[in-house]
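Exercise 4. Each item below gives a protein and its sequence. For each, produce the structure-token representation.

Item: Sodium:proton antiporter (Haemophilus paraphrohaemolyticus).
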Amino acid sequence: MNIYAYICFLAALSILLGFITSKISARVQSTIAITAAAMVCSLLVWILGSFGWFKIDVIAKNVMEQIDFKSFLLNGILGFLLFAGSLGVKLPVLKDQKWEITAFALISTLISTFLIALLIWTPANLIGLPIDFIYCVVFGALISPTDPIAVLAIIKNLRAPKRLSMQVEGESLFNDGVGLVIFVTVFAVAFGGQDTSVANIFSLFMHEAIGGILFGFLLGFIAHVLISSTDDGSMEILITLTIPTAGFMFASNILHVSGALAMVVAGIMIGNWTRRSGFSEQSQRYLDHFWEMIDHFLNSLLFFLIGFALLLVDFEFYGIVLMIIAIPVCLISRYLSLWIPFKGMQQFRTYNPYTLKIMTWGGLRGGLALAMALSIPSKTAFAGSIDVKDLILVMTYAVVMFSILVQGSTIEPMIRKSKTVDPNREEYLQPSKH
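Answer:
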């Protein structure tokens, strides 16, 4: 069978699995349930394979390798997921939270990247694993972006305070784009032989980030003009499809700018400007429904593949030790990277007292981190005699699974408590003290 056939069957399995888990437990968020079920299935496949049953583990691993999880996400569905997510961002609320989202998405991501690198590099060398610091920075860059798809659904279902919800949602969208830019920049230095001068690194970062944002504005404007010039509802929706398809590919593969940031910017423009003045009445009704269906379908498939990505991970002694260390390190770094800018902003605003806790515990890692880890070339960098890619992949998988299964399934009580602090009033502006 070809890759398309594999994806068709896996997509059907992910939907069937989502249907079954929803019948078993309606309280568990679907993406969490699908990931858990897929991980159990992959463990079962591994166990059966270890007994020599039809070499089912080899077959399953071969399928996962042929699909190429990295290309499937980074060069495929990522554009759809980010565009669909940004369509629902309300610009007035985003403007009100612009400084918080900027600080969390940019400053916190940078702090987290280097803090994780330091906290992984130090114990690794203490246990006799001579891993270069730059490779620890690569891990910090790929694991710092949050991917709170599952927790966003919980926040929306529970109707968390709007400002708190926007902080999580806005940070996650821009965080993905910024994090991917940071990873591409660090990756070029670690594996691409790029000049390590500050000026060159800054130039790489700015080209990806600013270029992606500007191209996103251009995409959004062109789509707005085309949509405004027709009253054909079907054509209007089809035009939006060109953004995460041709638009994403053009940004990433031809202009070599951040396609992720371009999708977020274009999505916000279409979801606010075009929604208000460009779409026909029919399209306004169907826009959200159409993209919610695409988003739900691709998320189901993505989280199903995350569960089965276990088959691609090789567990060794040093990898297991670092895997155990990586989980608390990422949580601590996430908290501290948010706490630093948060304390500064508290001088000017009063926030819901659960904001920092929810953003820390609700900052899930997902498919983006795994895809970036899988993009690292094999057998090009070593820590002693161990392939650096294997070490980074096992740490990444551990953090991703812990965040989805443990953090994602236990965030709900915290969100409920945030509503009881002041049920009739959300976070409010506090007059400047200066």
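Check: The longest strand covers residues 382-383.
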